Amino acid sequence: MISLQRLTKHFGSQVAVDALSLDIPAGQIVGLLGPNGAGKSTTLKMLTGLLVPTSGTATICGHDLLKDPMEVKRCVGFVPDSGAVFESLTGLEYLEMVAALYGIPAEAARERIRQFIAFFDLSFDTLTDKLLGAYSKGMRRKVVITAALLHNPPVVFFDEPLDGLDANAAVGFKALIQTLAREGKAIVYSSHILDVVERVCDRVLIIDKGRLQVDGSPAELVALHGARSLEQLFTSLTGGDDLERKAEDFAKTFRP
Ligand SMILES: Nc1ncnc2c1ncn2[C@@H]1O[C@H](COP(=O)(O)OP(=O)(O)OP(=O)(O)O)[C@@H](O)[C@H]1O
């Protein structure tokens, strides 16, 4: 359903994403992990048409990213880590605008929006009366997730989706993506919350400096590398050795 073929992005002389090649079938939840600056967001931005690759390409639902960008956009939903929205619209205005852009008829859009606000426990009054600029971070996140799923895309990319969600909403969200995957959607989930990734994802990709380091199920990878957990595997692969000693040395600098 998603196929990357040597997907690459340079920013000047810096290689942010370095010849990534992989395939993701329908119904799979894939965790995209990597340290800060590894190239995760850049990869997702290329796959959603927000950044043009320097070389390589990808196909999504059979559509080539470079040759067929509009078809690709129809097939994907994206929750970016920025959570940026039009702050001077109400939540409902924003969602209706997104629905109109995807060509969803107004009545069907209202019904879908109603289902999402019930799921996320948002009040309809908040959605109609308050401008998005006045929403809390978590409320805004719920609206952005709703917007990404409104057109029922077969492929969904989430960049740190739990950021700002309270514990109840996070539990609901995890159940939601597992249900979406069972219905056949391919889901790519970029996050730093490793224990959630370990529990929710069928497959984990760890990238570092734009290159794919490992690819497999969490249990497989942990066993293969003789690690105690995904977190330990992650720190050993991505240069996090000696973190406790470094923390102690750093804390010492605050001593009088
Ligand atoms: N628009 C840009 N212009 C120049 N450099 C960029 C741009 N966007 C990203 N980069 C660089 O590309 C590299 C990869 O960044 P990216 O945002 O993809 O990392 P990330 O894995 O998502 O990191 P984080 O976990 O911190 O969000 C970084 O070194 C970053 O500074």
UniProtKB/TrEMBL annotation:
<keyword id="KW-0067">ATP-binding</keyword>
<dbReference type="Pfam" id="PF00005">
    <property type="entry name" value="ABC_tran"/>
</dbReference>
<comment type="similarity">
    <text>Belongs to the ABC transporter superfamily.</text>
</comment>
<keyword id="KW-0813">Transport</keyword>
<dbReference type="InterPro" id="IPR003593">
    <property type="entry name" value="AAA+_ATPase"/>
</dbReference>
<dbReference type="InterPro" id="IPR027417">
    <property type="entry name" value="P-loop_NTPase"/>
</dbReference>
<dbReference type="InterPro" id="IPR050763">
    <property type="entry name" value="ABC_transporter_ATP-binding"/>
</dbReference>
<keyword id="KW-0547">Nucleotide-binding</keyword>
<protein>
    <submittedName>
        <fullName>ABC transporter ATP-binding protein</fullName>
    </submittedName>
</protein>
<feature type="domain" description="ABC transporter">
    <location>
        <begin position="2"/>
        <end position="234"/>
    </location>
</feature>
<dbReference type="GO" id="GO:0005524">
    <property type="term" value="F:ATP binding"/>
</dbReference>
<dbReference type="InterPro" id="IPR003439">
    <property type="entry name" value="ABC_transporter-like_ATP-bd"/>
</dbReference>
<keyword id="KW-0536">Nodulation</keyword>
